[in-house]
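[09:14] KT: can someone run the structure on this one? pasting the chain below
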Amino acid sequence: MPGYSTRQLSVTIGGHEWRLRVLSDLQQFADPDGHGERLGISSAQWSLFGQVWPSGHSLAQAMHRATFNGERVLELGCGIGLASLVLQQRGVDVVASDIHPLAEPFLAYNAALNALPAVHYRQLRWDVPLPSLGHFDIIIASDVLYESAHAELVSGVIQRHARDTAQVWVVDPGRGNSGRFSRLMASQGYTADSLRSPTNDDDLPPYSGRLLRYRRGEAGRPA
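[09:31] RB: done, structure tokens below
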């Protein structure tokens, strides 16, 4: 037994049903060798990666609706990685990343569960440079600004891994740190706008999701 329990979840994105293995609830915890603790993941945070949150639904909807033309995409804090799975199904060049030690096996399992090849994955600490990760045309994330330090950390990752011409799409549920993040993005030369986005297939205008979009250089806006 792995020390935690799971359940299967069914999610519909753009009329397509996704089957996902997620943690049974937020009470699950298993860190027998202290790996997660050494990465800075507390027992209270440990289970957060293992659910599909409303912001994750919204990001997946945005990835289903957007138009891509050969861009390389990085997802930050992917968790279960629904948005990356949607991109993988669409044939987009995507790399999923997270710090949680179980994010990669859960992502691989869910790709197989939906008859997809494994998504390219890298474990990424936002406070530790990873030059081998390379650079990306589009960086995406959902609900990554939930702690005050995250604005600086996430903008730092973007600074290291975004191409000179790049876009950043962040679904933010209004945690209170988006203003600071937007100012940091402006200091890197990005212009910003925001729009309401659907959280699920039944969401009608005005949509319940909030997508922050940042653009630098000649990068076109998402469709």
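[09:33] KT: thanks! The CA atoms of residues 176 and 200 lie 23 Å apart.
[09:34] RB: yep, looked fine to me
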